[in-house]
UniProtKB/TrEMBL annotation, chains A, B:
Matching Pfam families: M20_dimer, Peptidase_M20
Alphabetized Gene3D superfamilies for the sequence: 3.30.70.360, Zn peptidases
Residues annotated as domain Peptidase M20 dimerisation: 187-345
Entry protein name: Acetylornithine deacetylase/Succinyl-diaminopimelate desuccinylase
């Protein structure tokens, strides 16, 4: 007898072979192909009104099945786009030639988010095959720009409020606590990302001829960046922490119950030590405190050997994770003021905003979340936990606000699955159990 | 009547067409071709014992003419290698397709050092053609690794002490004060260049999943780099300034006499302001104070848009200009200690030394320097000045020590000729007058 899940995995491999990178327009063809593949897959699953809906950017794939009046309607959200695969040299096997090793599938997008997205497609396919109908109403909204911060999804949702209306938004794009401990995320940090560019001269200068007497763009960028944190890891921008909630003892106790091993994290990530804001535990630093990370930097000569120039230009990519009532636009203005005040003489600094999203929190006692927790527990050993997640899914807040719906962030990935990094992978046992869990969840209504 | 200098310029263009980049092994063929071209040129000039002498790296081109017993022997040193041409996009015309505009020749190496080197070849060619002999003894030692800090020239000079023995070493690889003001450099800064590399994790991490709780290689590199200077532009490394001479009032007065316009420098280089160590004038900062410049930096995501990673690795290229008795190895050890003391938790830092050279100073009253000053003044409007130069020519100290000879740094370039930058060029009026000046200099003995 052919195990149905083997066929599902074959489909997953096919999906992973399509290079749906959204950060680089060179992959445009992959995006188009990926959207087309998904639409076909939804049709095969018995979904109706399947549609590839154009936006100003990459298309949204829509589908629905709405034949259970009186039952809740779920909007299933996921993204078929993936991060760029570079640095290619660090992958064990090619990022778009999925390979299964030790019951894990290795490919770009395996856990983020193609594998998790396909769980829902296969859950409804399986229900339709078994019963010829679904126990609830379902709509799919699968986008192709999550990795570039969903620039066109907000207008899309606003424009199609009626079409997308629902009771709950079901999303699998977050990690479980570990292989046997399910997790429903009840907090997501907001995000603000921008580029900082420093210019000091009209061309690179010879460091012998001018060194010591003229501004150096790399030096000035370094000074500016270093002014943004103090020695205790606190962000020094005036007003940055406005809207950040007080950390209550109750919250601290709740977070202390979440499993976390400092030693294991260090070993797994190859760290010699953790590093973060003083006075907070690592899980607090990740889950409930805002951060400012430097994601990339460049300037001057970067080739082999030496070129003794004074660089005329340097730039950095910077991203903040925001919490509570921190507003990304407000934070950006405070950073702008800080930069203006700390800009060293002789430098011209520009800031370009790339991403912004407000933080969002959910109530773990909500019915949609509680039923999801129970569904998990039929297939996993441990009780479901309700962590605050460090990442951002900007669209969640929009779904809640615009559609007046309850977000249910029911993840099947693992923190260790290298999302956004080389050798990204997805545990197939979670793919199989994920399908069963989602079926069971829908049946519980 | 054909002007001889037109033929000389034709030869210069031919020389500039050969891409003799020494910093990149992809140009190896250009180096070989450049050395061969020079050897032919020296033969045509009537030089004897022309030889392409192999080293562990790029060859040295040697030639001599030694038929004036009792007269001084000059060793003419120059380099036929050039800086890399990138960034190519910023050149008005292609760097290895020389073009003459407004009596200036534009090409990589035009002023540094092919144009200046060829002045000497053409001066002896012209003397030989006019008189059938030279008024002094001459040896040529033209190397192909100056732009990578002459790694093989020191052993070469030590091995061939006898062959290279001389009374004075004549070098044209420094700038004049301006178009009508000749300059003989009487001080060169030393150099120490190294790469700093910071590693924090075994792979890039997702900033949503870990941001706030793990070390960030770019952030740690920034902290380390920013610890190297204080807010007044002073270098904070303990012991860095050991061996730096006191700045006497006499020296300050001498330097204050050198022409320097802050406004013009700013306009010319596109600076909004100068920037340097407090308490010193720009010419003091460049000429007699040590510096530490950041020549390049890289780490994390550098592509378009955003990739919200926590970078695992970042690196910077750093170079110091040294003065007086500062010893590069000693300074490097002090920097190593500083870095060890300031390395933030969670970072592994390595330093790789790339270049080292001690500073050197000359006495302006020396006969060889005085006669050079007088020769200049026959063809230029203003008196010759004797500046301290900010750059380093590591081999000069070796020539003086090993060959017991007097360095004469008689430049024909201009500070504004974009050496090491796009649109490098050389004023042909200085090429023509340079040939006359060198002929006159030799005739004065």
């Amino acid at each position: 007898m052919v195990d149905k899940s083997d066929i599902y995995i074959k489909d997953l491999l096919e999906f992973l072979r399509i290079p749906t990178v959204s950060t680089d327009s060179a992959y445009k063809e992959g995006i188009v192909k990926g959207a087309g593949w998904l639409a076909e897959e939804l049709k095969k699953s018995g979904m109706e009104n399947v549609e590839i809906m154009e936006t100003a950017g990459n298309p949204v794939v829509y589908a629905d099945w709405l034949h259970q009046p009186g039952k809740p309607t779920f909007l299933i959200y996921g993204h078929y786009d993936v991060q760029p695969p570079d640095p290619l040299g660090l992958w064990t096997t090619s990022p778009f030639e999925p390979e299964i090793r030790d019951d894990k599938v290795y490919a770009r997008g395996a856990t983020d988010d193609k594998g998790q997205l396909l769980i829902h497609v296969k859950a409804v396919a399986s229900l339709m095959e078994e019963y010829g109908e679904l126990p609830v109403n379902v709509k799919f909204c699968l986008e192709g720009e999550e990795e570039i911060a969903s620039p066109n999804l907000v207008p899309f949702v606003k424009k199609h409020k009626e079409k997308l209306s629902c009771d709950a938004v079901l999303v699998s794009d977050t990690p479980m606590m570990d292989k046997e401990t399910p997790a429903i995320v009840t907090g997501l940090r907001g995000a603000l990302a921008f580029e900082m560019n420093v210019i000091t001269a009209s061309s690179d200068l010879h460091s012998g001829a001018y060194g010591g007497a003229v501004p150096n763009a790399v030096h000035h960028l370094v000074k500016l960046l270093d002014s943004l944190h103090d020695d205790e890891g606190k962000i020094t921008v005036d007003g940055f922490y406005e809207g950040v909630p007080e950390v209550t003892n109750a919250l601290r106790e709740e977070m202390a119950r979440l499993p976390f091993s400092e030693e294991e994290t260090k070993r797994e990530l190859g760290l010699s030590s953790l590093y973060g804001e003083k006075g907070y535990t690592p899980l607090e630093q990740i889950g409930i405190r805002p951060t400012m990370e430097f994601n990339g930097i460049k300037g001057g000569y970067q080739g082999e050997g030496m070129k003794t120039i004074i660089p005329k230009e340097a730039s950095a990519k910077i991203s903040c994770r925001l919490v509570g009532e921190q507003h990304p636009s407000y934070v950006f203005e405070r950073i702008r003021e800080h930069v203006a005040a700390f800009t060293p003489e002789g430098a011209t600094v520009t800031l370009d905003k790339l991403i912004e999203a407000k933080a969002v929190t959910m109530d773990p006692d909500n019915e949609y979340i509680q039923k999801a927790a129970r569904a998990y527990e039929n297939f996993y050993e441990n009780e479901t936990l309700f962590p605050k997640e460090g990442g951002s899914i900007p669209i969640i807040e929009v779904f809640r606000g615009e559609l007046d719906s309850e977000p249910v962030l029911m993840g099947f990935g693992l923190q260790s699955e290298n999302m956004h990094a080389p050798d990204e992978h997805f545990n197939l046992s979670n793919f199989r159990r994920g399908i069963k869990t989602v079926k069971n969840y829908f049946e519980s209504f």
